[in-house]
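Most newcomers find our protein records easier to grasp once they have seen one. To make this concrete, we reproduce a full record directly below:

===
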Amino acid sequence: MGNRILIVEDSPTMRQLLVFALRRLKGVEIVEAQDGMDGLRKVSSDHFDLALIDINMPVMDGLKLISLIRGEESLRGMPIIVITTEGAQEDRERALALGADEYLTKPIQANKVLQVAKDLLKLT
């Protein structure tokens, strides 16, 4: 059984880039969500092994989504990678304090995303 990855990102271009990078992992299933609400719906009704979450999104931002995910007992162990244009130290600290496992700033490098995803999914 492969790993299931949820990408929560409002930019279709950015989602495509992430999907393209993550497809290099063997046997992964990638599900996309276009905003925080959509992401919350998907993560609440299905099992994912990893989530990549953008911070700046309409409807519900990524930080709110992370805090809701971490508030759910069943989702606490799911690794979260934050992907954002916000490079400030305080944004990083806030995301990590809310429960993100990793914080990547845009522009995203496919190899970096791949490496972090592999590490968090404990793939060799």
Summary: The chain has five helices and five strands. Residues 110-121 form the longest helix (12 residues).
